[in-house]
Please model this.
Amino acid sequence: MKRFLKQSWLDFKGQRAAFSLEEFALMETMYPFVTMVFYCLVAGYAFRTTNLSRWVVGNAFLLCTNTCVFSLGSCFMGERYYGRIRSIITAPISKLEVILEKGFFPCMICIITTFVGFGAGSIVFHVNWSGVNIGLFLVILLIGMASAAGFGLFLATLGLISNQMHLILNLVANLLVIFCGANFPISQLPAAGQLISKLLPLTRSIEASQLLLEGKIAFEQVLSLLLGELGVGAVYVILAFCVVKSAERVAIRKGTLELF
Model:
């Protein structure tokens, strides 16, 4: 465990080595927070309402996008750039462990960023938290961020088989904004859009948090949504592991790491 944490910290630190502490804090909080304020204001004018609680909750969850999609999603691309990908592919070590190491600290950062976003958004848009089960909300937040980190790890592995990661990451970030229920009710999406929303992380966490805030949720419904969210995250971690193993086999067979 000590080696796992040490390696995870070194990997996380290496990814952010170009930033000072102030730059890192601003990048992880202010940029996504301003984005959240933008979408909440648009929702306020579009739906002609001053009760923006559901949009604060939804967009606070999306604060993790910067870390889970762009930072975590580009990590294997960074490994290729810095020349470490050869060691990762050929070394006789567990690739699942390598993947989990890369996701541990980003998951922690996602939880902190989203928690700060909830606090700031609640103050700015006067969200009423009285009567909300804070313990249950923290559980939903933890599971949602774990699922998002799993999704980010899957995106990261696509960097092994594609050189179009900037296109993929920007596309996925916008899919999350549109389809995970943060800004548009899933029930109003077309059938294909509702299917996409079920395949994305955060959809069930956002729904559970919105229902919890509105006081309309039952224990069985929470359990169902959280198990679904955990299942989605687990599937993406397994897919990430499968992509790495496939890339490993192809690289050994062809004698090259350039798989695209």
